[in-house]
Amino acid sequence: MRWPSKVLVLVGICFLAPAPLIYAQNDELSATQARTVSSAATEEEVAQLRQEVADLKAIVQELVRTTGRPAPAQTRLMQANFVPDPEQPEAAVSPVEAPPSGIDALLQKGGAPQKEASDTPHVIPGWNGEHFYMKSSDDNFTVMPIGYFNAQYNFYKGDGAPPATFAIQRARVGVQGNYGKQLDYLFLFESASPLTIRDAYLDFKPWTSFNIMGGQYRVPFSQETLWLETAYEFNSLSISAVLFPNATGAFRAPGVDIHGSLAGGRAQYWVGLFNGQGLLQNGTTNEPEVTGKVRFFPWKQTGNNWLNGFALGGSIEHSRSKALSNELSFSGLMTDNAYNFFPQMRINGGIQRYNGFFSWIKGPWTVRGEYTQVLEKRTGIGSFVNGGVGFNTLPGVVGKGASGIVTYFLTGESTRDNAMPSIKHSLIGPSSPGETGGPGWGAWQLKFRYSWVQGRAAGATCDAFTIPACPLTPGIVPTYTDHTSQITAGINWYLNYWVLVRSDLNIDQLVNPSTQGILPRNYFVFLEGIQFRF
């Protein structure tokens, strides 16, 4: 026997020998309590020790057979009759792994399992049915590349209408994911125009009822602009969207808000502070834009299938404008760019917005409606108006608008609340997540929308002979009361879950033009768009 084996056997004797001796003499010790253990081992005890060593060898051989793992070189045991082959290298000799001792033996017999190398956190790539992703094996970190683009062709017909155009409306790429169980993030860049940060935020979610979001993202005010952009049914928003906050900044602004879901999802709320100036812009006053929004699902958890998809809610917003920063009233440019129905003018003072909305989703049907009103004050604005009236306060600019939408899937798909529908039979590519309907002609959706918007800005006349506060030169501020409406009808073709073709026909009805010399008339706009997302 080699010397390492001898050492191991001697160590085993040192640990194992006292046990049989103590147990053998247990009765005698308990009887007298004064008798000492003899230092000399009897032949019976030596035989018992040999038997235990033989049992130990059998256990070691069984471990080698079941695990197949070699023992470290310093603890290898060989059978006493083993004769090594002089032509066989040392590494090729099958060693016998020494049995674990102490706490390791207890852990392997019945305690906590030893940690394997596979338990070390590592990266796992995958596909969740909708997006590619990479995540850590402990699910504490996920990164998911996302993106989408919209290509669109606009054809106009009408006196003074713009020429036909083809444009990339959106071309956005970014990543989203989570860090830990309670922190979501998203970074989205716009590349259709000069590269711009479109969305960049963190959403901390300690509880369902209380979440905190901060960064740059869509201001939680209207129902329409909070709808996922990839889930828009129409190529352009309703014309009443010009009244929403931060409309010139894609309805986004830097800020922070708290939001959550209450009563088992029957109520949702948002309360936020934003700079009120759009994308990557600094505020112009010491008063931030304050926004609050609530949404209720009164029959969400009832057994009434006709009403559990009904929701209603409202929003309020308050901010302040500054004429010295060249701030203007809402834009009157139509969302399909056909014409401008209302002029912009300088504003100064408070801004108040009010919004009410409802939605109803039932199978292939969707019905949504929304009303918005805004008041933009012109306090002490006279000196900033051409031919103005000194520092007199003018009546504020008032905007009102509303929209109603109805959609229906001819192919039987169910509409989802603020999400893409699941396509039953895709024309191209893979099936939708969770669908196994096989190939087909995709999904077809009919759609109809009516929207209108109205702008009013009352004027004033100043004559120094009748109003002492007016300058010597008389000033006149005209009154504007303009109104326009839009009827849209069209069809959507979902080739699969990721590719969508939209076809819209807008009838823009200019009721009260703001430009002198233009009579009320209709414009016809055909919009054809394609969307791809990943």
Your description of this structure?
Helices cover 11% and strands 41% of the residues. It has 534 residues and is mainly β. The chain is elongated, with a radius of gyration of 39 Å. Strands 3-4-5-6-7-8-9-10-11-12-13-14-15-18-19-20 form a 16-stranded antiparallel β-barrel. The protein has a two-stranded antiparallel sheet with strand order 16-17. The chain folds into 2 domains: 3-113, no CATH class; 144-533, Porin, CATH 2.40.160. The longest helix has 25 residues, at 43-67. The protein is built from 5 helices and 20 strands.
Features:
single chain, 534 residues, mainly beta, 2 domains, two-stranded antiparallel ribbon, 11% helix
Concise account of the structure shown:
With 534 residues, the chain is mainly beta. The chain has helices at residues 3-16, 18-24, 26-32, 43-67, 103-109, and strands at 123-127, 132-136, 141-157, 165-179, 183-190, 196-207, 210-218, 252-262, 267-274, 289-296, 310-321, 349-362, 365-378, 394-409, 443-457, 460-462, 475-477, 480-494, 499-512, 521-533. A hairpin with a 2-residue loop joins strand 6 (196-207) and strand 7 (210-218).
Radius of gyration: 39 Å
Strand content: 35-45%
Strand arrangement across the biggest beta sheet: 3-4-5-6-7-8-9-10-11-12-13-14-15-18-19-20
State the order of secondary-structure elements, H for helix, E for strand.
HHHHHEEEEEEEEEEEEEEEEEEEE
CATH fold-level topology of the largest domain: Porin
Give the count of structural domains.
2
Give the termini distance in whole angstroms.
68 Å
Number of separate helices: 5
Instruction: Assign the CATH architecture of the largest domain.
Output: Beta Barrel
What would you call the structural class?
mainly beta
Q: Which CATH C-level class of the largest domain is it? A: Mainly Beta
